[in-house]
Amino acid sequence: MNYRTLGTTGLQVSPICLGTWRFGKEHEGLVETDRQDAHELLDAFADRGGNFIDTANGYGDGDSERWIGEWLADRDREDFVIASKCYWSQVSRFQENLSRKNVRAEVEGSLDRLGTDYLDILYLHRFDDDTPIERTLRTVDDLVSEGKVNYVGLSTADAWKLTKGLWKADINNYEAFTVTQPLFHAAYYEDVAEYLAVCADQDLAVCPYSPLAGGFLTGKYERIGDGTYDLDAPEDSRGEFDDLFLDFYVSERGWHVLDAVRRVAQELDATPAQVAIRWLIDQPDFTCVPIIGARTVDQLDENLGALDIALSDDQLDRIMDARYDEDGSLYQTNA
Ligand SMILES: NC(=O)c1ccc[n+]([C@@H]2O[C@H](COP(=O)([O-])OP(=O)(O)OC[C@H]3O[C@@H](n4cnc5c(N)ncnc54)[C@H](OP(=O)(O)O)[C@@H]3O)[C@@H](O)[C@H]2O)c1
User: Strand, coil or helix: what is 93?
Assistant: First the structure.
């Protein structure tokens, strides 16, 4: 595997990050990825050279971090880049925010569950409009000085809030964001274009979440008729059991982009998932390391196959262009 430097952090990471949101996640009593499957996925990812793992304090009510921690205990911690997040609280029903109290408590909880002394990256999971960002950055800066966090990142936020955070860090000499984690995939670009422009300008690494639109861009969902939201979902797929799937990932734009992704996949003898992931890795303006959410080792292996294909400029452009109709209007998304 050819490792990449993650923006300006100096960290050497695999070009694909393993997301662990579904570890321990329950739907009506059924666990999506249980402890054994989680450990199999982590084993497979590491065996193929993956070293970059994304989790959060609240994934699976803490089980994601716990299971990664158990697994990491038999590995060399220094070989892995572990990113976690704070905002939602695991310890207090009053403190869902980026207050000093909550950030500290949540980072301590993450370190405990992961069985590690430090996080490589701490993302602010959401922006907190009630806590001045300089207060949060001061807290994170202290955590960096204490050796509990190495780098700070920001996930979903408006472009101006990302910019404000960078500015406040700069004038106060606090540790600044070096990594970002927006929702970003081939059918969801204009919506985050300004955020991505800030990342390009400020040399921030971009780690897109839901790079396959929750599985939609794998091509396993089929459209029924002309309606946007009537689809045939394979049994046991996210689209079948997760009510949020239609709201977040299915759109008119998505269907048109999927058509283009499928055509390119055919040309390359690859799969749509591989093409959609490669399209992200090849972003020209910033380091882009997609966070994939495979649920089985077969899915993981298919997705890692993105590292073995190359898209021509024409193929990249055709996927870009598919977001617009013949009159140049952008097809709509919901998210
Ligand atoms: N910062 C944030 O707010 C935020 C939000 C969301 C996610 N994340 C991070 O991003 C990671 C990835 O998000 P995501 O899970 O939505 O990513 P995704 O890669 O867009 O979707 C993953 C889902 O697609 C399906 N899939 C993946 N590869 C497949 C393949 N080759 N063939 C068929 N189906 C396939 C699987 O679902 P089924 O098998 O169930 O159909 C899998 O769970 C998360 O784990 C988390 O770490 C962060």
Answer: coil
